[in-house]
Amino acid sequence: MLIIAHRGASGLAPENTLAAMEKALELGASAIELDVHRVEDQLVVIHDRWLQRHTDGHGLVHHSTLAALANLDAGQGQRVPTLWQVLECIDGRCDLNIELKGRNTNQPLIELLSQAQLQLGYQPQQFLISSFNHPKLMRLKQLQPDLKIGALTASCPLDYARFAEELGAYSVHIDVNFAEPEFIADAKRRGLKVFVYTVDEPEDMLELQRQGVDGVFSNLPDQARATLGSHTIAPGHVWS
């Protein structure tokens, strides 16, 4: 089973910061998940639309500037990194799940992933792009047919994982509160990988393992590794 560090090792360092990414690598997470918004012509790594929860700033992320973001404290003296800074930090040592937030992220993402392959040595298969915005994922897949996409949901749809199959998704990402056995089984029948978020309780991890899910997003990758033991998959090219 994959242990995907949720916003980095966010239970142990400020979420979506370089410190959280380094901590996830140190703890042997199979892969790292992070969130991006567009600011000016770049993608910045932050979860919320508003700055208040993550930083000592105020206002909407997309109304900010790169210069202003660089001066904010994202916790313990950490800064809000750009996606490029995170890619440099990780340096291809594990695969990434990039969740798209906000507006107009597709084109800068495509350009940045190409740049990462040329300049940093990443392989195309190291990236999995996810979003709750399914029309955005559909457009991205049309622009980059070979790119792996993951369809997020925070519900248990009537037709289970059909929406993800119709998008041509590689994976479906299910809220732990809606990870019903029937939903998981349907996704597997459709040939989809099943990843469940956000899973920090050992009992949940073991139950999801019994149900055959392919991975869990966890804020505590060290605890997840201790719980799942030899069943965990080491970092590397895990989006197979």
What would you say about this model in short?
With 240 residues, the protein is α/β, with parallel strands linked by helices. Helix content is 33%, strand content 20%. An 8-stranded parallel β-barrel has the order 1-2-4-5-6-7-8-9, surrounded by 6 helices.
Characterization of the model:
The chain has 240 residues and is of the alpha/beta class. It folds into 2 domains: 5-10 and 12-131, Phosphatidylinositol (PI) phosphodiesterase (TIM Barrel); 150-233, TIM Barrel, CATH 3.20.20. 33% of the residues lie in helices and 20% in strands. It has an 8-stranded parallel β-barrel, surrounded by 6 helices. Helix 5 (134-143) links the parallel strand 5 and strand 6. Helix 1 runs parallel beside helix 3 and helix 8 (202-211) crosses helix 9 (221-228). The two termini are 13 Å apart. The relative contact order is 0.17.
| Tally of distinct domains | 2
SSE order: EHEEHHEHEHEHEHEHEH
User: What is the 3D form?
Assistant: globular
Examine the coordinates and then state which fold CATH places here, giving the name of the CATH topology of the largest domain: TIM Barrel
Give the helix tally. 9
Tally the beta strands. Answer: 9
Query: Average pLDDT value?
Result: 97
CATH homologous superfamily title of the largest domain: Phosphatidylinositol (PI) phosphodiesterase
CATH class of the largest domain: Alpha Beta
Proportion of helical residues: 25-40%
* Biggest sheet layout: 8 strands, parallel, barrel
Low-confidence stretches: none
Distance between the termini: 13 Å
Cα-atom Rg, whole angstroms? 17 Å
Spatial strand arrangement across the major sheet: 1-2-4-5-6-7-8-9
